[in-house]
Write a structure and sequence with these properties.
Layout: H1 14-20, H2 23-26, H3 30-46, H4 52-70, H5 83-95, H6 108-144, E1 149-154, E2 157-163, H7 164-188, E3 191-192, H8 208-214, E4 219-220, H9 224-229, H10 232-258, E5 266-267, H11 286-309, H12 324-347, E6 349-350, H13 352-361, H14 366-375, H15 380-397, H16 406-412, H17 420-424, H18 426-431, H19 441-459
Helix pairs in contact: 3-4, 3-6, 4-5, 6-7, 6-12, 6-19, 7-10, 7-19, 10-11, 10-12, 11-12, 14-15
The protein binds arginine.
Amino acid sequence: MKLWAGRFQKETDTLVNDFNSSIGFDARLYKQDIRGSIAHASMLGSQGIIEPYEAERIVEGLQAILKEIEGDQVEFSLDNEDIHMNIEALLTKRVGDTGKRLHTARSRNDQVATDFRLYVKEEIPVVTGQLLELQKVLVKKARANLDTVMPGYTHLQRAQPTTFGHYMMAYANMLRRDITRLEDCLERMDECPLGAGALATSTYPVDRLATAQALGFAKPVDNSMDAVSDRDYAIELLSALSILMMHLSRFSEEIILWCSWEFQYVELDDAYSTGSSIMPQKKNPDVAELVRGKTGRVYGSLITLLTLMKGLPLAYNKDMQEDKEPVFDAFDTVELCIPVFTAMLDTLTVKGKNMLRAASGGFINATDCADYLVKKGMPFREAYMIVGRLVNMCIKTGESLDTLTLKDFRAISGLFDEDVYDALQLKTCVNGRRVYGGPSEESVLKQVGLIEDFIAARSGAAGEA
Ligand code: ARG
């Protein structure tokens, strides 16, 4: 018999029974559900809403059920609809009528809202922890490649010289924002819905401060209707995870390009690439491609939840039962992607010679050539024009700026001198950019320091990173 059968004269249709049931996926919340129920029962006991000895029996019963679930000794039933009713039924079976007092001053609406927040709160640090590991690898790669010159691109056309170290720190900075976005989300959602009841609290003297504190929340949610009806924190989470996946997807795309035969900037470790069933020569970047591909699932989860919520009147609606799977899937996907991506990056080989060759061939130092003239007193626009003419000339003759003779240079401007060759050296171009945030060794080392401080502040052991 259903917990709520009192008002009904017919059995639930079996189709509806299955349709309505969420135990197939919300069983994942068993730990949070039991934690929430223990906090609630203890509060009921200390407020005198139920007898303290009853609270104690309930708590002991719930602890025993937790052990049984963890020992795989429990089978949940579809008839009990969701994790909340399943556990309540197990409790009543175990401790008898006392179990029926647990749901005093509570609704599944504040119960599920509490469970879900507890779950998200526990899972966010797992993701940020993984991201910190990825940042450590980025910092390691950056330190090892401070002078690995490579082309920087705009429009995927070679634009200005930079280094692989500078490149890695660009991603390390994106990840820093991804981490702080998740931390912000965690801080904002750190409020407990328990005690909100169905929507309007209850007439019992429940102590919401006590349950919030027992469950490790900063405070109770201020408004009980808000407490049971919003899922904005889950949307914010999915948005932060989507942005994070967007970053990983771009990075994956770069790695896919870089290990193509056309670029050959990096080589993936054999353990982190795969072969083809037909083409013996193939070494494929499947890990990076899957990370790029799985990004779509996480975006999908965000859109699912945004759409789910947009038309719902306050307060609880059953539609909201659909909030869990997208969040579970997003966490699963992200937590699967980050460690394998980290390991792939950690083990890839950087082919500095190929990067340098790609940076040398073209006219990647054209801006520096113009800057050279500017330093000799020419206005930038004029210098830009002159170097444009030089580039045009080189394209016709098949040369590059650094292979022109001084005579060629001087034919276009008398300001050119012997020292132009040094100015055009790629290392000079890179290390001349000592500006805050730039690619010079000195600038990149500063960026490395900032990220190392960021990591150290989160690992508790200063300087450990
Ligand atoms: N399984 C439900 C959910 O996930 C629990 C809340 C049900 N509340 C209700 N009034 N039907 O949302």
